[in-house]
Amino acid sequence: MQKRVRQNVRGWVFGVVLGVGLLALFPSKSRAGVTDDLMDQTKHPVAVTMALQADSFFGFNPALYGTYGLTKDVALAFSTTYWTNIGGVGAHDQNPWLEFDLGLNATFLDKRLSITPMIGTVHGMLLSSRAGSFSKGGSNVNARTTAFDGWVPSLTANYLDNRFEGEFYMGYYKSGRTDGTVPETPNPGRADGRTGTWDFLHYWVNAGYRVNSMFSFGLHYEHLLSTRDNSAAYAQQDYYRWLGPYVEMKLAGGMAFRFTAGHDYGDNEDFYKLKFTKTF
What we know:
Layout: H1 2-25, E1 46-55, E2 59-60, E3 63-69, E4 74-83, E5 97-108, E6 113-123, E7 150-160, E8 164-175, E9 198-210, E10 215-229, E11 238-251, E12 255-264, E13 269-279
Antiparallel strand pairs: 1-2, 1-3, 1-13, 3-4, 4-5, 5-6, 6-7, 7-8, 8-9, 9-10, 10-11, 11-12, 12-13
C-alpha cells in the first residue's frame, strides 16, 4: 500500500513540475518589464499538424503534434496520440490509452534537418499491469483507470529537401507504476497472480526520393519489442519487425497522404499503414 502511494505521489509531483516548467518557459513579462504577447505569431510562429493514421497492429490512432517558436531555430514541441484500439467504452475500467509529450525542436542546415527530443507521459492502464487490449500480449481490460501509467523519452529526427526526405524515431515506453491486477486465472510463473508490468522499445526509420513537389517514394523499417514483461518467465518478445516501401502524395494547403505496406519479419505475414496529415 505504501509503495502504491509513493508511486501515485511521484506521478502527480511530475505533473506539477511539468506545469511549473511551462510557466517558466512562458513568463507573462520580459525582463525589461514589457509584456510579451505570446499570441503574436510573428514573434512565436506556431505550426500544428493533425494526423489520421491506422496500421495493422495499433488500429486507428489519431495524433496531433506541433511547435511553438521560441527563437529562429528553436521551438517548443508537443504531441498527443489517442490509442483508440485500447478499449474505451465506459466511464471507468476501460482505459483508453492517451499519450502526451513535450520537448524542444531544433532546426539545422537552413531548416532542412530538425531534431526533437521529448519526454512524454502515458495514461490509462497498460504498462503498469499489462491491461488494456494489446495484440498478442494477453490483457486484463478491467484494470483500474490510471493517470501517469508510464513515461516516454523519445527522439525524432527529420530531413527534407528538394530531392530527399527521411525520418528517424525512437521511443522507450517505461512503466511508471506497478498496479498489477489479479486475473481470473493467475499467470504461470507469478506466485502472486498479478498481470505484471511491461516496458517497450519502439523505433522506425525511413528514407525516400522526391520525384517532384507532389510525389515521393521510399522504404520504411519499424520495430516494436518488449524489453520487460514480468508476467511470466521469458515473456519478452518482438511484436513486429516491418519492412516495406511507401508512397506519399503531398497536396497544397499542407495536406499529405502516405501509404506503406510490406512484410512483417516477426510473424511472417503482411503489414500496412495509412497516414493523412493536415498542417495549419
